[in-house]
Amino acid sequence: MILVAGPYRSGTGDDPRKLEANVRAMNESALLLFRAGHLPVTGEALALPLLDAAGSTRPGDPLFDEIFHPVAEQLLARCDAVLRIGGTSEGADRMVARARSQGLAVYTGLADVPAPR
């Protein structure tokens, strides 16, 4: 299972179209991983529906802070590796640092990801 970590809010000014473009980029990478035989996951796929159900009204509100990154951190604990995509992202960089501290593989490009075992 590989966590796809990339920018969500960084550089968006919280513009919904830019946020969605960042999610789309992570999902496109996840699809390529899936087609290569891996099980890809994104924190956004789990956190965003929870935020909606909790009544979060905007990125960075108290519910966002309660749920968004903690979901990714819990998810990472169950992953075998991280694929870091995209540009600047404090959250994605935090996932990479945490993955490395847990001894997980970190890939910086799809071509670096080995075939599944």
Describe what this molecule looks like in 3D:
With 117 residues, the chain is of the alpha/beta class. Helix content is 50%, strand content 11%. The protein is built from 4 helices and 4 strands. It has helices spanning 16-35, 43-54, 62-76, 90-101; strands at 2-5, 40-41, 81-84, 105-107. Strands 2-1-3-4 form a 4-stranded parallel sheet. β1, α1 and β2 form a beta-alpha-beta unit. α3 (62-76) packs parallel to α4. The radius of gyration is 14 Å and the shape is globular. The N and C termini lie close together (11 Å). The relative contact order is 0.23.
List the helices and strands and how they pair.
Elements: E1 2-5, H1 16-35, E2 40-41, H2 43-54, H3 62-76, E3 81-84, H4 90-101, E4 105-107
Parallel strand pairs: 1-2, 1-3, 3-4
Quick recap:
With 117 residues, this protein is of the alpha/beta class. The chain has 4 helices and 4 strands. α2 runs antiparallel to α3.
Mean pLDDT comes to 97
Q: Kindly state the percentage of residues in helix.
A: 40-55%
Radius of gyration (CA) equals: 14 Å
What would you call the structural class? alpha/beta
Q: What distance lies between the first and last C-alpha atoms, to the nearest angstrom?
A: 11 Å
Number of helices: 4
**3D shape:** globular
Number of DSSP E strands: 4
Major beta sheet, specifics?
A: 4 strands, parallel
Which series of helices and strands comes N to C? Answer: EHEHHEHE
State the strand order across the main sheet: 2-1-3-4
β-strand percent reads 5-15%
Residue windows where pLDDT falls under 50 for at least 5 positions? none
